[in-house]
Amino acid sequence: MNSQVFQTPIEYLKGMGTARADVIKKELGIDNFGALLNFYPYKYIDRTRFYKIRELQSDMPHVQVMARLINKEILGEKHTKRLVAQVQDDTGMLELVWFQGIKWIEKALIPGKAYILFGKPGFFNGKAQMPHPEIELYSPEALKRKGNITLQPAYNSTEKLKQFALDSKGIEKLTTTLLEQYAKDIPETLPLYLLNRFKLMGRADAYKNIHYPEDAGKLNEAQYRLKFEELFFLQLKLLKNKLLRVQKFKGNVFEKVGHYFNEFYQYKLPFELTGAQKRVLKEIRQDTQRPVQMNRLLQGDVGSGKTVVALMTMLIAIDNGFQTCIMAPTEILATQHYQTIKKLVGDDFIEVGLLTGSTSKKERKVLHENLENGELKILIGTHALIEDKVQYKNLGLVVIDEQHRFGVEQRSKLWQKSIIPPHILVMTATPIPRTLAMTLYGDLDVSVIDELPADRKPIKTVHYYENSRLRMFGFMKEEIAKGRQIYVVYPLIKESEKLDLKNLMDGFEVISKEFPLPQYRVSVVHGKIPAADKEFEMQRFVKGETQIMVATTVIEVGVNVPNASVMIIENAERFGLSQLHQLRGRVGRGAEQSYCILMSGEKLSHDGRTRLNTMVKTNNGFEIAEIDLQLRGPGNIEGTQQSGLLDLKIADLTTDQELLQTVRKLVENIFAIDPQLAQPENQILNGAFKISKPGLTWDKIS
Ligand code: ADP
Ligand code: MG
């Protein structure tokens, strides 16, 4: 076996040449044999029969013709330059035309020789024509190959590549050459027992069949094998990283549950924990009792009670002599956490500090001192928390709210502050479908609070068109009369910012007329308002001084106004599902029945309608995330964009969820039994780390 051969630079492939090697590198990123092997066709075309020239019709799809070349010539100048050739079979003449790759193709055309052509027929002045056909010199072997091939691979190409005769057909020639020469060198990467157990096609066969399927059945087998392999090694790597992390990063042991936790639980917690909250606390408890750093992602819908869970975890840390902190993405959120936690723990129970950009120098100094001497047990803040001056005496736990707003570096800054890194609990209210989480956070532990507190009334959601606007105003007045507050949210998209702002201001004007002073007071907040004014308006709304808040999505994250019971979303069809769900989560935080009104235009796209219907149908963030995944594909789900983990070559996290789960379990089992992959049958897996994709380290993911 000689698998090194796949590292060979692409210019060494027979028939390639340096010019073409350069462009294929630039255009497709294919720089060696292995990369070419992994450049799969995006579809397959049926080529089961040959057509006679007389049979050709202009409404035919791509067809196959066998004919002899009579003549070729290059016509025109510069922009009109084209290669024209005539071919003939026993039924008639056909004209072939090329506008690109002329130089390359012209060389390959030899008058008198027979060719196998493939293209879409057309007619010009009554003459049969075929623009830009794929063309291959006839030979018994070629014919035999074609006869065997019922499915012709189609490869993605680019205009630039076509100039170098690297259209789909050109690329096919390269993969043919490669496979003819080196298929025998393609190493198997999976252990035999897995091939047997899952009835997987061998790797070399799979590559042959993904490029040139023998038939549809073989193509299926090949695809399954390659998907399996792709997901398998991704999970293998993620879980191996997790094992390594566990070995590498020691953790503080929170041995006991003591005074702070018990006192809080017995006397201060104002409600019964939900089953989900209890389960998650247990999971965290287990993690923090081991001398290994915890890295846990806590997912839960808005209002599911993540903060309380975080607080109780912090109390356990404090019971064991450690300090804790919560990092929030904005000042507003940090302040809210501070207030919430102060209220929950009450006075004189534990020292809680708030550190944000607007903390004064004097206060800051006191905070720093109390942190260093260990008196301050809970510090809540923004990025200010990780400024270099902040020194903890004994930081044992970091809670991070809304993770994807914090970069990796920022997070690792925190741990360098202690020798044994603190346990990390990341909270997110953006539910991620299970399968995505398995990949994105494949090496983190994930806890899910999938249950809302029992006293919560589900938000009622309706979808209205413009003709219901008056009815909506009436409803708003009723709610305000009951003492409630209302959000009215407008979309603001960069590309259409001016127009969007105008919409918002027009909307604000209409609302101001409909809800006049002095009976009503309306706030407006958007991105073009100076931060201080924005803050001021927000605070007015928070304090209940205004009843209506007209805003862009600036209010999306975190803001907590329990008295706000109505969320109106204008042009709701323009928002993504997860954003709609986040916005809706701004209401339903108090004891009152809350409502969400989705306003839309009459004309809705299929997806737009699906989004709005989904919102009306369910309040469940995980269900919504699944539908979002179906609609948009994994690459577009919020929080996943930069991860790179999702550029899979053949597997698809939307359609291959079952396979992914199978593979995930399988890999977990393998590591459970053989963590070093040392058993003879598993040793092959160690080798695979070297040749599969580079560097998915934990740092990159987390
Ligand atoms: P999240 O951070 O997940 O959005 P919070 O922790 O802010 O949710 O909780 C939302 C509200 O629900 C808070 O007012 C909190 O005190 C309350 N809450 C949390 N857990 C429970 C529970 N088990 N029963 C009743 N209310 C709860
Ligand atoms: Mg919260």
Task: Tell me briefly what this model is.
With 702 residues, the protein is α/β, with parallel strands linked by helices. Strand 3 and strand 4 form a beta hairpin.
Keywords:
702 residues; alpha/beta; DNA polymerase, domain 1; OB fold (Dihydrolipoamide Acetyltransferase, E2P); seven-stranded mixed beta sheet; seven-stranded parallel beta sheet; 41% helix; globular; disordered C terminus; binds adenosine-5'-diphosphate; binds magnesium ion
CATH superfamily (homologous) name of the largest domain: P-loop containing nucleotide triphosphate hydrolases
Cofactors, ions and other ligands in the entry? adenosine-5'-diphosphate, magnesium ion
In the sheet with the most strands, the strands line up as 6-7-4-3-2-5-8
Here the CATH topology of the largest domain equals Rossmann fold
**Which spans of ≥5 residues are poorly predicted at pLDDT below 50?**
691-702
**CATH architecture field of the largest domain:** 3-Layer(aba) Sandwich
How many H/I helical runs? 25
Structural class: alpha/beta
Shape: globular
| Tally of individual domains | 5
List how many beta strands DSSP finds: 22
- Helix fraction, binned, reads 40-55%
- What Rg is obtained from the alpha carbons, in whole angstroms? 32 Å
